[in-house]
Amino acid sequence: MQIGLGFWASKVLLSAVEMGVFTELAQHPEPLEAVTGRVGLHPRSARDFLDALVALGLLERKDGVYSNAPATDTFLDKKKPSYIGGILEMANQRLYVHWSHLTEGLRTGMPQNEVRGGGQPLFETLYADPARLKGFLKAMTGISHGSALAIAAKFPFKNYKTVCDVGTAQGDTAAQIALAHPHLQVFGFDLPEVGPIFEEYAAQLGLNGRISFKPGNFFEDPLPNVDVIVMGHILHDWDLATKKALMRKAYDALPSGGAYIVYEAIIDDDRRKNAFGLMMSLNMLIESYGGFDYTGADCQTWMRDVGFKETRVEHLVGPDSMVVGIK
């Protein structure tokens, strides 16, 4: 019952993010009437909605006054740099609807996103609309931020001088690496349309001049020649042949001893534990024509196939792990 009706809890959270409940309460705790008015709730729904958030552990209530739980105060206040709600905003606006067609996707093997109604494929749709693109890139920061911090802390960047985050989106991974390792020269590589969004984010973090944007298409252009190449939540978008082609481009761009870091919701080798990774792979079914997620053993095999001599898998945070290849 909890799993089958899990969309109830999901939608309560997504609506709370959409309506700015956590951002409002981050300013100060408020009683029922104040929250109702300030976030635009109807009196009929307000008490049940807010108390459902309490019961789910997302809000706290003391003497009739509501406040954020510690986790929601940290991660779902839009005014904090630790905000990761961009991915939840995208889930609410896009994925929630598209996943209602999962059964059709399971039976046909075809995407169930915008293309289902005759629209353009995902990336063409996103990159054609600056506002939508910015929202998508914020979502990528949301889903990657914890892993970016973990990579910056765990990988031995002290042994290297230059890093490029390929498919950098807003540039959060590049930013977190640069913040943790001032000696590094760090680049973000993505399509030219991403440049202004990357530079705006770098400015917000005080990193103008510390990280640089390199425009390019990773299918058409060579990757920058650096000591470390990072690809986060990139390979799962594509079929196996394309995955290997991107790995080969990374291998060719690196010097001997250079490192290639792939991170996403790497599925455990026995395919029994990382349910998020397996469902992310189903999300790739919804979103793409050939994308899928994979195990650490899969990724290590592909890395060795293109020439990497040493490989390892290291857990990052939550469902995410990184696979490292050394040339």
Beta fraction:
15-25%
Helix and strand run: HHEHHEEHHHHHEHEHEEHEHHEE
What overall form do the CA principal axes indicate?
Answer: globular
The residue fraction in helices comes out at 40-55%
Whole-number mean pLDDT: 95
Total strand segments = 10
What class do helices, strands and sheet pairing give?
Answer: alpha/beta
Query: Termini separation (Å)?
Result: 49 Å
Largest sheet: 7 strands, mixed
In order across it, which strands form the biggest sheet? Answer: 6-5-4-7-8-10-9
Q: Which segments are poorly predicted (pLDDT under 50) over 5 or more consecutive residues?
A: none
Number of helices: 14
Gyration radius over CA: 21 Å
Keywords:
327 residues, 7-stranded mixed sheet, 10 strands
Plain-language structure description:
The chain is of the alpha/beta class. 48% of the residues lie in helices and 16% in strands. It is built from 14 helices and ten strands. Strand 7, helix 12 (240-253) and strand 8 form a beta-alpha-beta unit. Helix 1 (6-19) crosses helix 6 (86-98), helix 9 (130-154) packs parallel to helix 10 and helix 12 crosses helix 14 (296-306).
Structure, briefly:
With 327 residues, the protein is an alpha/beta fold.
Summarize the SSE layout with pairings.
Layout: H1 6-19, H2 21-27, E1 30-31, H3 32-39, H4 43-55, E2 59-62, E3 65-68, H5 70-75, H6 86-98, H7 102-108, H8 122-127, H9 130-154, E4 162-166, H10 172-180, E5 185-190, H11 195-204, E6 211-215, E7 228-232, H12 240-253, E8 259-264, H13 275-287, H14 296-306, E9 310-317, E10 320-326
Parallel strand pairs: 4-5, 4-7, 5-6, 7-8
Antiparallel strand pairs: 1-3, 2-3, 8-10, 9-10
Helix pairs in contact: 1-6, 3-4, 6-9, 9-10, 12-14
